[in-house]
Amino acid sequence: MRFTTLTLSSKYEKLHITFISGYIISLNLNIKAEKAMETIFVNPKDVKRKWHVIDASGKKLGRVAVEAANLLRGKHKPEFTPHQEVGDYVIIINAAKVEVSGNKETRKIYYRHSGYPGGLTAERFIDMISRKPTFPMERAVKGMLPNGRLGRAIYRNLKVYAGSEHPHTAQQPEAFEITGSGE
Questions:
Q1: Domain boundaries along the sequence of the chain
Q2: What is the pLDDT of residue 27?
Q3: Rounded Cα–Cα distance for residues 113 and 125 (Å)
Q4: Alpha carbon of 175 to those of 91, 132, 154: distances in Å?
Q5: Spatial separation of the C-alpha atoms in residues 19 and 27, rounded to whole Å
Q6: Structure pTM?
Q7: Side-chain half-sphere of 115: how many Cα atoms within 13 Å?
Q8: Considering just the CA atoms, what is the radius of gyration of the chain in Å?
Q9: What is the rounded CA–CA span in Å between residue 70 and residue 141?
Q10: Is 14 helix (H, G, I), strand (E, B) or coil?
Q11: For strand 158-160 and strand 120-124, is the pairing parallel, antiparallel, or unpaired?
């Protein structure tokens, strides 16, 4: 019987193969791993939540919605975790004065269905903003949040108001300025 050992090595791994008469009897792979990334788990009572107020007058609907969704999810924080609620509270004022680009005022259509045959109702953006001034903003932000329990919990931290007044002055919200023109 003839024993033969073959060792192959690289920066991160070492392979030992032992042969007896041409047959492999042992195969050892030693991997020197780098420090593995760890999932961040934040205790809900340790989360520091701020209140932000965004003035939507004269801003594009999508730009305001993106910034609000990112603040709600907490993507601006170093302890952001996609499966936990670590975001801040967001107040959007002047939602009735939001703008849309192009011909979306007349061509953007919101659909809803009553559940009955023939129960489809369509409403243009311009009509919707005059009837329910906060609905387009709420719908845009909600569409940018995750679906399911987490998304519903995050959505409860959004407050949208048609005018410039809001009842959350006791929380001392910080003004959040949206950069970029969207043009």
A1: 1-36, 44-175
A2: 63
A3: 17
A4: 9, 25, 20
A5: 9
A6: 0.77
A7: 0
A8: 28
A9: 10
A10: strand
A11: unpaired
